[in-house]
Amino acid sequence: MKAGYLDCFAGASGDMILGAMVDAGLSLEKLDRELKKIPVSGWDISAARVMRSSISATQVTVSVTPSRRKKKYRLLKEIKSIIEKSSLTSALKEKGIAVFQNLVQAEGKVHSVPPDEVKLYEVGAVDAIIDVMGAVVGFDLMGLEKVYSSPLPAGQGSIKTGHGYDYPVPAPATMELLARAKAPIVVSGDPWKGEMVTPTGAAIITTLASFDK
After folding, report:
1. Which of 6, 51, 103, 137 is 20 to 30 A from 20 via CA?
2. Mean pLDDT value across residues 174-184
3. Alpha-carbon distance 4 to 139, whole Å?
4. Could you tell me which of 126, 105, 114 has the C-alpha nearest to residue 173?
5. What is the DSSP letter of 74?
């Protein structure tokens, strides 16, 4: 069995997961070709070598044209429709939809809203859809039958959301995702401030990966 391991010592987000896969050998061209099967336009994916704390790494960026950012939010049914209309395999569609279902269940819990009525702002945007489906497609292209994750850093401080509110870190939906998955979190001695794990990153990992024991 071929397995992958996500070493999330510096956190986790959709683009970080994509960058890690490309750095590990995933072809960006093949990934782009598969993601183009999703019927959503106005985006581009690129990769560049960067230095972080004197260590070389790969940064993957999903760029979205301004016109595609005008939509304020999407409901789960809209995202499901986009994924289901793609020409990806049924298995990949199911996994992608499962990530978003996991996400809206967490968002619905913290906001006391039925999952089908949850308004996904940042995590419903085009780049978030590509991040999620990129992880699903990327794991498949790499032939990974199983994906494991390390404990996740809690981070410190607060963030301002698209709603205009200040939320503690980890954000409520992120914490709900991690709590429901019984994900191990590194709290004591955490040297980083700010958001270390995004809702998108948490949704991908808690849906598609298993944790170290």
Report:
1. 103
2. 94
3. 8
4. 105
5. B
